[in-house]
Write a structure and sequence with these properties.
single chain; 258 residues; two-stranded parallel ribbon
């Protein structure tokens, strides 16, 4: 897994790239977070070397799921038979494997995933700062969101576990999220979707990144918000378990019969 498409291309086709040493028909699986358009172009170049490219960017149902082979893979492949041949390997990497379509579709889904995640992160940073200023307790705010309509991946996992505890150790870098939002901007322009939100999110998170370590975890965005506002968010000393009944209650409602 490499950080971005430029590094993937360099590793494969650069001056000391490995493509020239691979056997014809070799399947290359790209699990990076890259531009779908760059991925399509890379696939064409690798085809000139008789190599097959599959993209399988990763998302997760919980942070560090990749460490246990429990990721969610968003796969793009131009050839069904190549996907089927690689499928056993993919399924050792993830609990959920979705064939999104031809090459480029996996990274398109990845940028949409990270766009939605970034939206919730920015909203939470704003909210806990404003809420604490007003007198609300940040941990209690998350507790309410997790049994309300504001629940999302950030409230359930990294913001709850890594931002409010100020451990900042989710394993996903803030700089990578800023990079990914640049891909989202490109994707929206390509599809002629008129929206300013990806650029705004990227600007907010870039500003936060400028206030923390360049290698900081994405949950350290909260620290950037703290430095800007002059407010130190109350630290959660111990992460509480989410009660099983909260999920069972939600499932009963979500699976209700109309």
């Amino acid at each position: 897994m490499l950080p971005n498409g430029k590094i993937v291309k360099e590793a494969l086709l650069g001056e000391i790239g490995i493509a020239r040493a691979l056997k014809p028909g070799t399947i290359i699986i790209d699990t990076s977070s890259s531009s779908p358009f760059d991925t399509i172009a890379l696939g064409k170049k690798l085809a000139q070397h008789s190599l097959e490219l599959i993209e399988a960017p990763i998302t997760q149902t919980y942070m560090h799921a990749t460490d246990h082979g429990e990721s969610t893979l968003m796969v793009g492949s131009d050839k069904k038979e190549v996907y089927e041949k690689a499928s056993p390997v993919l399924r050792t990497m993830g609990s959920y494997v979705f064939l999104m379509g031809p090459l480029g579709h996996g990274h398109a889904m990845k940028t949409i995933n990270n766009y939605v995640m970034a939206s919730s992160l920015v909203a939470l940073c704003d909210s806990v700062i404003a809420g604490q200023k007003y007198g609300l307790d940040p941990q209690q705010m998350i507790d309410v969101l997790n049994v309300g309509t504001g629940v999302n991946f950030q409230t359930l996992d990294p913001f709850r576990r890594d931002a409010l505890t100020k451990r900042y150790s989710s394993g996903f870098g803030l700089a990578l999220l800023v990079k990914d939002l640049g891909i989202t901007q490109e994707f929206m322009v390509h599809n002629k979707v008129e929206t300013e939100l990806p650029g705004l999110l990227r600007a907010y998170l870039s500003e936060a990144l400028g206030r923390v370590d360049p290698m900081a975890d994405h949950t350290a965005a909260l620290e950037g918000w703290e430095k800007k506002s002059g407010i130190s968010v109350k630290r959660t000393e111990k992460v509480k378990d989410i009660p099983r009944e909260d999920f069972e209650h939600r499932l009963r409602g979500l699976n209700r019969k109309e």
